[in-house]
């Protein structure tokens, strides 16, 4: 898998913009997920007790930060060594326990890409979307390999 320095830079700079406005983009991300899959609400401990995605929920923000941050980390790994390697199988265990399936990975991918398009606005390009999509796909593949 070849991932260029330019792709990595695109992911990195937009991730920083995402992170600077985390509470806002976190709400957008979960809203996109729930639009597609309302039932996903019951999967997340921090969503299941409320009727809307509340801005400023610390657990929701922390989770969004981890997901986007890990995709950014995957982009760095891809650029440096051409593959994404997880340190352990914790994420496989957590997601198996939560009942996460392939279709959920697709929904989260779409939500992540839509959120990142909002982050960069007019500056979005095909190259930008492909960079985020590739990094996400490779990370999701690495997680799925550790799911039983
Ligand atoms: C938890 C990352 C995809 C649902 C977590 C955690 C991380 C993470 C780091 C915390 C694990 C811990 O407790 O130590 C990711 C990444 C993903 C991904 C990087 C994709 C590349 C998904 C998908 C779903 C999902 C597709 C289902 C829609 C959950 C749930 C939890 C969780 C329900 C537990 C959170 C809670 O309720 O507190 N994820 N995840 N994740 N993830 Fe994911």
Automatic annotation (TrEMBL):
GO molecular function list: heme binding; metal ion binding; oxygen binding; oxygen carrier activity
Residue stretches spanning the membrane: none
PROSITE patterns given in the database record: GLOBIN
Keywords, alphabetical: Heme, Iron, Metal-binding, Nitration, Nitrogen fixation, Oxygen transport, Phosphoprotein, Transport
One Pfam family recorded for the sequence: Globin
Ranges for domain Globin: 2-148
SUPFAM superfamilies reported in the protein's UniProt record: Globin-like
The UniProt record lists the keyword Electron transport: no
Function: Leghemoglobin that reversibly binds oxygen O(2) through a pentacoordinated heme iron. In root nodules, facilitates the diffusion of oxygen to the bacteroids while preventing the bacterial nitrogenase from being inactivated by buffering dioxygen, nitric oxide and carbon monoxide, and promoting the formation of reactive oxygen species (ROS, e.g. H(2)O(2)). This role is essential for symbiotic nitrogen fixation (SNF).
Family as reported in the entry's similarity comment: Belongs to the plant globin family.
Name of the protein described by the UniProt record: Globin domain-containing protein
């Amino acid at each position: 898998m070849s991932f260029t320095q330019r792709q990595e830079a695109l992911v990195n700079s937009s991730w920083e913009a995402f992170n600077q406005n985390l509470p806002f983009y976190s709400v957008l991300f979960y809203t996109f997920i729930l639009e597609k899959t309302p039932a996903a609400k019951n999967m997340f401990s921090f969503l299941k007790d409320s009727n809307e995605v509340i801005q400023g929920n610390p657990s929701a923000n922390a989770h969004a930060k981890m997901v986007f941050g890990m995709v950014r980390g995957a982009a760095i790994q891809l650029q440096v060594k051409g593959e994404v390697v997880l340190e352990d199988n914790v994420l496989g265990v957590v997601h198996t326990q939560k009942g996460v399936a392939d279709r959920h990975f697709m929904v989260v991918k779409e939500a992540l890409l839509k959120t990142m398009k909002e982050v960069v606005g007019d500056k979005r390009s095909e190259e930008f979307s492909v960079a985020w999509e590739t990094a996400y796909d490779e990370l999701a593949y690495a997680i799925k390999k550790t799911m039983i």
